Amino acid sequence: MTTTNQPRHALVLFSGGQDSTTCLAWALQHFEHVETIGFHYGQRHAIELEMRPQLLQKIRTISPEWNQRLGQDHMLDLGIISQLSQTAMTSEIAIQMQENGLPNTFVPGRNLMFMLSAATLAYRRNLNVLVGGMCETDFSGYPDCRDDSMKALQVAINLGLDTRYRIETPLMWIDKAGTWKLAEQLGGQALVDLVREDTHTCYLGQRGEMHEWGHGCGTCPACELRANGYQTYAKNRR
């Protein structure tokens, strides 16, 4: 059982995207030991997984302290997710809104399964903080990104594992412009450049042209959020 007087060691859900990279930097600022976990679930934008190793290597160069604190990376195969549901995130289908008001990029249960899998690994690794990039401010309405969902999941995990884990979601109440700003506050221009040049967020998995805000198709919901957030962030810096 994890007790509250133990050192706070974190496990970050790290996809290789903008949000998870910013969350990793946040964790490296706040905890003395940080590990990362990624998931292969048949995602259409699997290129994000290809970005992860170089991101982890480059983030070590931003701060000697971060380099010392950053520990082991873990990858899990959660292919069962794509077997359970067909979505625009796991299949070559057009992105559109559904009758329930959610875009068909919503993968039911994905973040819940991610967090539960992370908690199971954390149990074995003696890590007592789970960090995720869920956000209720600039998001597509996914119910498993909401603060209430994460709080309820924290209770369920702690009851089921007899632990005292804490789920941290540093981006929950800030928009994408705020996420860019947080990256600057955590790692300066070096981290902002790393997010722009090396992270991947595009749902269609396109690297292609380098835009002001980074690589991507520029039209999917993820690219639009990222681009609009960067434009607001850049405007406020002037």
UniProtKB/TrEMBL annotation:
It catalyses: 7-carboxy-7-carbaguanine + NH4(+) + 2 ATP = 7-cyano-7-carbaguanine + 2 AMP + 2 diphosphate + 2 H(+). InterPro entries: QueC, Rossmann-like_a/b/a_fold. Pfam families: QueC. Keywords: ATP-binding, Ligase, Metal-binding, Nucleotide-binding, Queuosine biosynthesis, Zinc. It comes from the Bacteria. Binds 1 zinc ion per subunit. Its cofactor is Zn(2+). ATP binds at F14, S15, G16, G17, Q18, D19, S20, T21, T22, C23, L24. Zn(2+) binds at C202, C217, C220, C223. Its EC number is 6.3.4.20. Pathway: Purine metabolism; 7-cyano-7-deazaguanine biosynthesis. One of its GO terms (molecular function) is ligase activity. The keyword ATP-binding applies. Belongs to the QueC family. Catalyzes the ATP-dependent conversion of 7-carboxy-7-deazaguanine (CDG) to 7-cyano-7-deazaguanine (preQ(0)). HAMAP family: QueC. This is 7-cyano-7-deazaguanine synthase. It comes from Undibacterium cyanobacteriorum. The lineage of its organism: Bacteria, Pseudomonadati, Pseudomonadota, Betaproteobacteria, Burkholderiales. The gene is queC.
